[in-house]
Amino acid sequence: MAKDFTPKYTVPGIEREAAGTLIDVLRLRLHALNDLHLTLKHIHWNVVGPHFIAVHQMIDPQVDRVRDMADDVAERIAALGGVAQGTPGSLVKERTWDDYSIGREDAIAHLGALDVVYTGLLEDLRAAVKTVGEIDPATEDLLIEQLRDLEQFQWFVRAHLENAGGNLATASATTEEGAAEAAKG
After folding, report:
1. Which ranges constitute the DSSP H helices of 95-136?
2. Which SUPFAM superfamilies does the UniProt record give (predicted)?
3. Whole-angstrom Cα distance, residue 75 to residue 29?
């Protein structure tokens, strides 16, 4: 049985049932963002090799921005009359993806895996933008802003994986492990 996220009240101009739909979409976005900032810190702590410092320093600003994104999503859920479930148990129980699978590894391997992570996240976020755009422009705007930032972060990652001819080392990879291997060459 699907959980009903319809709030007892919501912001003016949005029907309660529509707010429930927005809350449901935002709930998964909150989980994805909380998972991403933990994954980024995991990479930050476990990256090694000749590109260590570049990747180590590139990741922390992404962590900070993703944490801010999670806060914005949680606050939007609350404004809509919902409950922002930010606990690890909720994340693990409700997520539709597996844990990040790469441990201590070369910087380029981590970037290859992170490219796959960003691709999945961005695909889900674009679908969320489409869903909320039919209901509420304020929530859509919030997610579009996040989409731009996350696409830029993926571009930063991909700049390390692209050759001068414009070919992406991870272009055919569909898993983190496959992308990590492809990135290492």
Report:
1. 107-133
2. Ferritin-like (SSF47240)
3. 12
Determine if residue 98 is left, alpha or beta; phi over 0 gives left, psi from -120 to 50 gives alpha, anything else beta.
beta
Reported in sequence order, the residue ranges of 12-63 that DSSP labels E, i.e. its strands, are 47-48
CATH of 16-184, one of 3.30.70.270, 1.20.1260.10, 1.10.10.10, 3.40.47.10: 1.20.1260.10
Please choose, from the candidates 121, 112, 106, the residue with its C-alpha nearest in 3D space to the C-alpha of residue 56: 106
The number of residues making up the chain comes to 185
Give 42-79 pLDDT, tens digit per residue: 999 999 999 999 999 999 999 999 999 999 999 999 99
Nearest-angstrom CA–CA distance, 26 and 44: 27
Residue at token pair 């414009």:
166
Instruction: Give Rg (Cα) of the chain.
Output: 18
The helix/strand/coil state of 81 is coil
Q: For residue range 31-48, list pLDDT tens digits in order.
A: 999 999 999 999 999 999
CA 126 vs. chain centroid, Å, equals 11
Domain ranges of the chain: 16-184
